[in-house]
Amino acid sequence: MSKESRMRATVNQKLAEMGERERLKELLRAKLTECGWKDQMKAHCKEVIKEKGLEHVTVEDLVVEITPKGRALVPDSVKKELLHRIRAFLAQHAT
Amino acid sequence: MKMEDMPLSGPDNTRLEALVHDIYSELVDDACLGLCFEVHRAVKQGYFFLDETDQESMKEFEIVDQPGVDIFGQVYNQWKNKECECPNCKRLIAASRFAPHLEKCLGMGRNSSRIANRRLASNNNMSKSESDQEDNDDLNDNDWSYGAEKKAKKRKSDKSQNSPRRSKSIKHKNGDLGSGVSTEPYKYNYNTGISYETLGPDEVRSLLTTQCGVISEHTKKMCTRSPRCPQHSDEQRRAVRVFLLGPSAPSLPDPDAVVESESFDIPDGQTLMSRLQWEDSPDISPTDSASSKASTNHSDSKRPKKKKRTSLGLNSGVVVGGGGGGGSSSSSQSNISLSIKKKRPKLSAPSISSIYDDLN
């Protein structure tokens, strides 16, 4: 629905303009490193690379292998906090 | 703005939630992508596998996760109950106490030198007060001197009767009786004790009535302890009096004339005397009056030049009285100092005593 898509566009624009997107990104990265998600993912990467061979690994390979696993491995606490913050932002700046 | 058209109603709420989740997913994907780029670059630049070595070393430093053991695999309280033999004193010391013990045992480290210095200082104080009962500047002289006297008595019994100090003083007494005071190169005191050289006969007389007065050979000072102090014999005291006051010197204060209770006061008198002597200042500070109990009567000041016998008798009698009326006066103490320091004009004596009457 165009209404909705327009709304989404607006929201995204607002997020970017107010710097909230960057802040959320940094927050997520910090939390993931803190909880050990990053090390887990790196270990998985090593396996992938060893599998594929050091010389021939491409970004695409990695992305394809890593992203689903990464999404799944995010701890619940981190997810909840992020969702909470996004909701708060929307509630604050949606009107 | 279309946003205003979206209240938080049922279907819209779900749309909002969907939106939130979408935003969240975007953020997570961003993070994953960032990681992929990072890893890919590390691989291509060749530093991705740098933290890995050969398999053996990897196994060696693997993280250990067993109970009772830290992550390096060491048992952390293994040495608690063990005992080590000290190489210095050959004693068995518990492992956790070994390092501090070694510090003290070898005499190294900050604390051990501090403790040693403190011990030396207190030993010096002890031995000093035993030898001559010299006054140290402290205000707690009364208790300290009495206690040290007791200790001195105890240790004296340990010392042999033929101790060098004893024989030295005897030698001195016999040998130098003839020489005058001026030939002795004794300096005035540097901290403690009384040097008889600077005292006039009257002062010497008054000192000798209340103090032992025996001149110590190695410090050349008069003993400030009780006239019945155990370190010196009556023979020595008599000899000192003869030496200082001439052949007509009176006998020592008669023990009978001295009440028993006085034995406690006399140390005060000695310390008072010695303190006054040491201060050597024309100002008689109120601390004198505060700290000492011994006193003589006012009448003492009026007769500083009386004959030795009578003044001695007066003093001994007065000290008895002083023992009874302990707190009696600062002015009387000022009179003692007045009589000791002969240079002070007698005219000032009554005025000073009046000052102290005011203080009292």
From TrEMBL, chain A:
<keyword id="KW-0811">Translocation</keyword>
<dbReference type="InterPro" id="IPR018783">
    <property type="entry name" value="TF_ENY2"/>
</dbReference>
<dbReference type="GO" id="GO:0006325">
    <property type="term" value="P:chromatin organization"/>
</dbReference>
<dbReference type="GO" id="GO:0000124">
    <property type="term" value="C:SAGA complex"/>
</dbReference>
<comment type="similarity">
    <text>Belongs to the ENY2 family.</text>
</comment>
<comment type="subunit">
    <text>Component of the nuclear pore complex (NPC)-associated TREX-2 complex (transcription and export complex 2). Component of the SAGA transcription coactivator-HAT complex. Within the SAGA complex, participates to a subcomplex of SAGA called the DUB module (deubiquitination module).</text>
</comment>
<dbReference type="GO" id="GO:0071819">
    <property type="term" value="C:DUBm complex"/>
</dbReference>
<dbReference type="GO" id="GO:0005654">
    <property type="term" value="C:nucleoplasm"/>
</dbReference>
<comment type="function">
    <text>Involved in mRNA export coupled transcription activation by association with both the TREX-2 and the SAGA complexes. The transcription regulatory histone acetylation (HAT) complex SAGA is a multiprotein complex that activates transcription by remodeling chromatin and mediating histone acetylation and deubiquitination. Within the SAGA complex, participates to a subcomplex that specifically deubiquitinates histones. The SAGA complex is recruited to specific gene promoters by activators, where it is required for transcription.</text>
</comment>
<protein>
    <recommendedName>
        <fullName>Transcription and mRNA export factor ENY2</fullName>
    </recommendedName>
</protein>
<keyword id="KW-0813">Transport</keyword>
<dbReference type="GO" id="GO:0003713">
    <property type="term" value="F:transcription coactivator activity"/>
</dbReference>
<dbReference type="InterPro" id="IPR038212">
    <property type="entry name" value="TF_EnY2_sf"/>
</dbReference>
<comment type="subunit">
    <text>Component of the nuclear pore complex (NPC)-associated TREX-2 complex (transcription and export complex 2). Component of the SAGA transcription coactivator-HAT complex. Within the SAGA complex, participates in a subcomplex of SAGA called the DUB module (deubiquitination module).</text>
</comment>
<dbReference type="GO" id="GO:0015031">
    <property type="term" value="P:protein transport"/>
</dbReference>
<dbReference type="Pfam" id="PF10163">
    <property type="entry name" value="EnY2"/>
</dbReference>
<keyword id="KW-0539">Nucleus</keyword>
<keyword id="KW-0156">Chromatin regulator</keyword>
<dbReference type="GO" id="GO:0070390">
    <property type="term" value="C:transcription export complex 2"/>
</dbReference>
<keyword id="KW-0653">Protein transport</keyword>
<keyword id="KW-0805">Transcription regulation</keyword>
<keyword id="KW-0010">Activator</keyword>
Automatic annotation (TrEMBL), chain B:
<feature type="zinc finger region" description="SGF11-type">
    <location>
        <begin position="84"/>
        <end position="105"/>
    </location>
</feature>
<comment type="function">
    <text>Component of the transcription regulatory histone acetylation (HAT) complex SAGA, a multiprotein complex that activates transcription by remodeling chromatin and mediating histone acetylation and deubiquitination. Within the SAGA complex, participates in a subcomplex that specifically deubiquitinates histone H2B. The SAGA complex is recruited to specific gene promoters by activators, where it is required for transcription.</text>
</comment>
<keyword id="KW-0479">Metal-binding</keyword>
<feature type="region of interest" description="Disordered">
    <location>
        <begin position="279"/>
        <end position="360"/>
    </location>
</feature>
<feature type="compositionally biased region" description="Low complexity">
    <location>
        <begin position="329"/>
        <end position="339"/>
    </location>
</feature>
<feature type="region of interest" description="Disordered">
    <location>
        <begin position="116"/>
        <end position="184"/>
    </location>
</feature>
<comment type="subunit">
    <text>Component of some SAGA transcription coactivator-HAT complexes. Within the SAGA complex, participates to a subcomplex of SAGA called the DUB module (deubiquitination module).</text>
</comment>
<dbReference type="InterPro" id="IPR051078">
    <property type="entry name" value="SGF11"/>
</dbReference>
<keyword id="KW-0010">Activator</keyword>
<dbReference type="InterPro" id="IPR013246">
    <property type="entry name" value="SAGA_su_Sgf11"/>
</dbReference>
<keyword id="KW-0539">Nucleus</keyword>
<feature type="compositionally biased region" description="Polar residues">
    <location>
        <begin position="284"/>
        <end position="298"/>
    </location>
</feature>
<dbReference type="InterPro" id="IPR013243">
    <property type="entry name" value="SCA7_dom"/>
</dbReference>
<dbReference type="GO" id="GO:0071819">
    <property type="term" value="C:DUBm complex"/>
</dbReference>
<keyword id="KW-0862">Zinc</keyword>
<comment type="similarity">
    <text>Belongs to the SGF11 family.</text>
</comment>
<keyword id="KW-0863">Zinc-finger</keyword>
<feature type="compositionally biased region" description="Polar residues">
    <location>
        <begin position="116"/>
        <end position="128"/>
    </location>
</feature>
<dbReference type="GO" id="GO:0000124">
    <property type="term" value="C:SAGA complex"/>
</dbReference>
<dbReference type="GO" id="GO:0003713">
    <property type="term" value="F:transcription coactivator activity"/>
</dbReference>
<protein>
    <recommendedName>
        <fullName>Ataxin-7-like protein 3</fullName>
    </recommendedName>
</protein>
<keyword id="KW-0156">Chromatin regulator</keyword>
